Amino acid sequence: QVSLIESGGGLVQAGGSLRLSCAASGRTFSPYVLAWFRQAPGKKREFVSAITWGVANTYYADSVKGRFTVSRDNAKNTLYLQMNSLKPEDTAVYYCAASIRRSSPATLRISDYSFWGQGTQVTVSS
Asked: What are the Cα distances from residue 100, in Å, to 46, 64, 123?
C-alpha cells in the first residue's frame, strides 16, 4: 500500500554535494518521524538524521552536523537530505525510514521504524 522510493545517490569527489530524495508512494501515509540511516560495508546501520512531522524538529548525528540538512515537502510526500562538504567516510548505502511512534527520534530504536526505502549508494572519493 505504501512504499518509499529513494533517488539522488551517486559518485562525488570529497568536498562535493549530493541531494537525496525519498518519495512516499501510495495513500494514507502519516508517519511521525522521518529519518535517514546509512550503512557502510562491514558496519552496523547507523542513524544520520531525522525530522518530525508536526513541529518539524530536526536531529543529526554528530558526524554530519553542520554538513547535512534534512527537510520534507508534505505536498510532494517527499523527504530530503542535502549533503554538503562530503567526506570519504560518508560513503555508504543510505536508507530513508519512517516511524509512526509519536516520540522524539532520540528515543527511537531502529526496530521502531516500520517503513524503509530500498537504499541508495553514496560514494565519496578522495
From this structure: 19, 25, 30
Write out the three cell numbers for 73: 515537502
Q: Which residues of the chain have pLDDT under 70?
A: 1, 27-29
Calculate the alpha carbon distances from 58 to 14, 27, 45, 71 in Å: 25, 25, 20, 8
**Angstrom distance (rounded) from CA 78 to CA 115:** 14
Rg of the chain, C-alpha, whole Å:
14
Half-sphere exposure of 106 (CA within 13 A, CB side): 6
pLDDT tens-digit profile of 96-110? 999 989 889 989 999
Distance between CA 84 and CA 16 in Å, rounded?
A: 6
How many other CB atoms are found less than 10 A from the CB of residue 95?
22
